[in-house]
Amino acid sequence: MYIESIELSNYRNYSNVKVEFGKNTNILYGDNAQGKTNILESIYMAATTKSHRKNTQDKDIIKIGEDESHIRLFVNKKDISHKIDMHLRKSKNKGVAIDGIPIRRATELYGLLNVIFFSPEDLTIIKNGPAERRRFMDLELCQISRLYYQNLASYNRILNQRNNLLKQIYHNRSLIDTLDVWNMQLVDYGSRIIKERRNFIDMMNEIIGEIHSHLTSGKEKLEIVYECNVDEDKFDETLQEKTEMDIRYSSTQSGPHRDDISFLINGIDARKYGSQGQQRTVALSLKMAEIKLVKRIINDNPILLLDDVMSELDTSRRDALIEEIKDIQTIITCTGYDDFVKEQVIINNVYRVVEGTATRVRTEEA
């Protein structure tokens, strides 16, 4: 699997741009705030219908002064070229077509293009709050499981409806009898999410230990622990027990929306007691394990998007990551590419990005 090219129209700071990619390493370089990350974001959008940036709406992506934006991406999968068209509009839902045929649901897109996004912000996932770690699980699980995406969307919708009902019950206790209907649905979808997350963490643990041991020269043993807020078998019981608390706070206090994961280095919680260097190594191990897991599940290589992350890694960590990406298509943003020329990777294309333009300055097909 690899991306052949992407074309953008009125996307953030781009009026019109086309970027072609080779099967190996492709570099987008330039000063900060020129639009390098926007190209990576558009690829992620084409794969998932969502931005990698938190709380980003379609209207935020459309170029200032314009009413709509377009993404056209060509991906080669098993020697067959596919086209993904995405139409973003300020006042309407986005439109998506695969090979010219419109799709109705985002789940129809998932699986056609698997991408892994790695940015400097990911290096802080260990020490940030639980929401960041839940988001990590959800973003990856949605790409590898259409059913998970459907269950998560249903769960979040029902959670919002239940929370709205709790606010009403706070002022009108006669509505409390209607809560059971929402409890039943919340437990149903929530239990499915918990099971999928637990399975995901189990699969990650099968991979990440060896990776982290290699990065630390065998000095550290890493284990991911799924901190489930409520066991699926006791979800309904817990909701019943905490009904009064939920009404008092007008929000649901129990469920997978409050899950977390911890990272144990030699049995010690890296979130609380790990040094900055240890936390960054755990984050790198996490991304490298993610790459291997996706390979195993889809029986193909995902596309790796590295957003100015190389400059954040020391030599040993950077070398370990480069070794991992040799056989997969990687699109890298950076302020300069001289260092990458010296590395043992095949560089296909180099683009210089300046104020919403991308000019190819080097091509070296493998």
TrEMBL record:
Where does it reside? Cytoplasm
**Residues in the signal sequence:** none
Query: Where on the tree of life does the source sit, at the highest rank?
Result: Bacteria
Q: Which UniProt keywords are listed?
A: ATP-binding, Cytoplasm, DNA damage, DNA repair, DNA replication, DNA-binding, Nucleotide-binding, SOS response
Q: Name one GO molecular function term.
A: single-stranded DNA binding
Question: Which residues participate in ATP binding?
Answer: 30-37
A GO CC term? cytoplasm
Q: Does the keyword Ribosomal protein apply?
A: no
Does this UniProt record's set of keywords contain Signal? no
| Stored PANTHER family | DNA REPLICATION AND REPAIR PROTEIN RECF
Protein name (database record): DNA replication and repair protein RecF
Q: Which SUPFAM superfamilies match?
A: P-loop containing nucleoside triphosphate hydrolases
Record-level GO BP terms: DNA replication; DNA synthesis involved in DNA repair; double-strand break repair; SOS response
Please name the InterPro entries in this protein's record. Answer: DNA-binding_RecF, DNA-binding_RecF_CS, P-loop_NTPase, RecF/RecN/SMC_N, RecF_2
